[in-house]
Amino acid sequence: MVDLISIENLEPLKEIIAQHKEEPGCIMPILQETQGAYGYLPIELQKVIADELNIPLSEVYGIVTFYTQFTLVQKGKYKIGVCMGTACYVRGAQNVLDRVERELKIAVGQTTEDKKFTIEATRCLGACGLAPVMMINEDVYGALTPDKIPGILAKY
Amino acid sequence: MKKSIEELRQIGKEKLDRIGLRVGLEAKTESKTQIMVCGGTGCHSSSSHILIQNLKDELKAHNLDKEVEVIQTGCFGLCQKGPIVIIYPEGTFYSHVQPADFKEIVEKHIIGKEIVDRLVLDEIKADPNDGLNKLEFYKKQNRNALGNCGLLDPECIDEYLAFKGYEALYKVVTTMTQDQVIQEILDSGLRGRGGAGFPTGMKWKFAKAAQNDKKYVVCNADEGDPGAFMDRSVLEGDPHVIVEAMAIAAYAIGADEGYVYVRAEYPIAVKRLTIAINQAREYGLLGKDIMGTGFNFDLHVRLGAGAFVCGEETALLNSVEGKRGEPRPRPPFPANEGAFKKPTVLNNVETLANIPKIIREGAKWFSDMGTEDSKGTKVFALGGKIANTGLVEVEMGTTLREIVYDIGGGIPDNKAFKAAQTGGPSGGCIPAQHLDTPIDFKSLAEVGSMMGSGGLIVMDEDNCMVDVARFFMDFIVDESCGKCSPCRIGTKRMLEILNRICDGEGQEGDVEKLEDLAKAIKAGSLCALGQTAANPVLSTLRYFRPEYEAHIKDKKCPAGVCKNLITFTIDPAKCVGCSLCAKKCPVNAISGEVKSPFVINQEECIKCGLCLQTCKFKAIDKK
């Protein structure tokens, strides 16, 4: 995993903005790269983007909150994405998700107190041949049943 | 370095000498054997990339890396049996190949010239060579849009050139007028593969007619329909076909700039597409003065950010412009006022993947396939309760039964087919009595579903249709952009009703309320997301109404899915007291003395069904 930049350090953000500033519709790539570098898009970073692009903060905020990919809060070290695409759902993804929630004692969208895990119900990951599927950061786990979950989580 | 057509053809010819053995030609170089390993997302998830590295290292260790090449390809389609490996010139078909199998493949197959039996599917055990033509899965298929997927290395433009790549673009820019190109596409009868099925040639015609000094071509690769992954597979397996097709579209309408809007969740597709664009630029197939004709065209990649509604064309355009991805009212249509308010053609990935071949082979080649209103072939992503999950391409008019049983291999575990869901959250469920429906735009609409982008999810007797309708409505509520109230509020109300039906709190009149809301949402919504949002509910009501009634009146879920409506009990006559279920139960709700019948504490049971799967004595009842 790449180390995330602290939001105190605004230089990388300014570089990202400078790189894209002249492109039409540049705000999407700017937000995507910023989140990639900092891990999330808190209001402090949004303010810098709004100032540099000379657009209202409300517009930046409107875009950030519209797209599910963008997050205003820090996520856990390991992002668990349980696929809730149709193919996974009809093969029992809900039971898998329920079990992950119970094991970690948090609900979908939440992060454990030690900031280790975040659970997300993701859109179709496109690995339907392996349904039901879950990803933990880059690792893919397929053909899941609820009782495989504790063993998988124990690896992290 | 920019290349002339002669140079491009020479590169292609030299490459074909090397790789022609994949299509039955004689190997004319030192490379006499080629190991093709699927690098699509499904097989990649099963570590096919590690297998590739292992194979390369092992071949090098045996000093065989000149004679034997390892090539990462796009998707072969049979994802269920992945990772797939095919070894040419024999075409030996291996399945479920793990990274650790490299040694056996090199030592036994390559050096020992023997088949590695345990990696061969039962069906072709007797002779695994030429597997692509022998497996039932492939026999009824007609792979056009997917033609190059699995055949070539998607990260190598020279391989694309070897198989007539960019010949269609050359033909168009040097021998055809804009109107001739558009007429060819019109004559082919090609309709959009993204969902609505609008004739592609008409789109191009409108955009060409629009007067403006600036026009755009946009490829919609925001494949959001859950369970559909054909666009991703084309981008991963044959990215140059999209670059070529977009350049052809640009020439036809008079555009000089294009965008590919692709889901951020498809990192492999994005990577290969970016490589393809850079390679095309390097050879002068994108940029200024393409093939010395004065035609200019360049392409950019834009990533989506996880909004399903951006698959809707006007929402997508807003997103490209860096705005919230909310749909715009139409008219004006994108052909007149699209990206940055300029005339724009928007085509889906699979639609574009058909274009170069139509130009090369002629409109008639394409229109000879398919049915009256639906020409050509269509790719489907088969998923759910089906033996062969994967990507299939069939001629339009093939029946659902052929796809599910002949190609898909039927339903696993001897379960009964219940329904096939097509069209994703905008589509509907097709029940068993319509299994012989030919798959084309018109027939699917007649049975209350739609073509959509080609997701085809099979459900068996264990799937609850009310729960499936609830699942899709939940998806829609999440993805409704909120701009117009019929969709934003209406779908939410429908979801509340569906939730209470599934929870056992359904009331008399709920079904009628659902129907009323469906009508209002359909009539009042701004874009296709809302206009079609009620389809999954309406189609399940049409075919599975008794299942709704069982939930509401009898408080029963006949399929045994809705947790509030089922209970698990242990039959004391069958329980031998082995205690296995009690050990497996994640909430310790099962107790008892060993060798005497166990009991489930209903207060604590979370109805996960693990005990039912665990019990070897069929002592667990689900009612």
Q: Report the C-alpha radius of gyration of chain A, rounded.
A: 18 Å
CATH topology grouping of the largest domain in chain B: Rossmann fold
Beta content of chain A comes to: 5-15%
CATH architectural category of the largest domain in chain B: 3-Layer(aba) Sandwich
Can you tell me the CATH superfamily of the largest domain in chain B?
Answer: NADH-ubiquinone oxidoreductase 51kDa subunit
The helix/strand class of chain A is alpha+beta
Write the CATH architecture name of the largest domain in chain A.
3-Layer(aba) Sandwich
Low-confidence stretches of chain B: none
Net shape of chain A: elongated
Strand order of the biggest β-sheet of chain B = 7-8-6-5-9
Number of helices of chain B: 25
Order of helices and strands of chain A: HHHHEHHEEEH
For the CA atoms, what is the radius of gyration of chain B? 27 Å
What can you tell me about this protein's structure?
The complex is a heterodimer of chains A (156) and B (623). By secondary structure, chain A is an alpha+beta fold. Chain A has seven helices and four strands. Chain A has a four-stranded mixed β-sheet, covered by helices on one side. In chain A, 38% of the residues are buried. Chain B folds into five domains: 108 residues, 3-Layer(aba) Sandwich (Glutaredoxin); 211 residues, 3-Layer(aba) Sandwich (Rossmann fold); 84 residues, Ubiquitin-like (UB roll); 90 residues, Up-down Bundle (de novo design (two linked rop proteins)), CATH 1.20.1440; 56 residues, 2-Layer Sandwich (Alpha-Beta Plaits), CATH 3.30.70.20. Chain B contains 25 helices and 18 strands. Chain B is globular and about 80 Å long. Chain B starts with a helix and ends with a strand. Classes of the chains: A alpha+beta (156), B alpha/beta (623). Chains A and B meet through helix 2, helix 4, helix 5 and helix 6 of A and helix 2, strand 10, strand 14 and helix 19 of B.
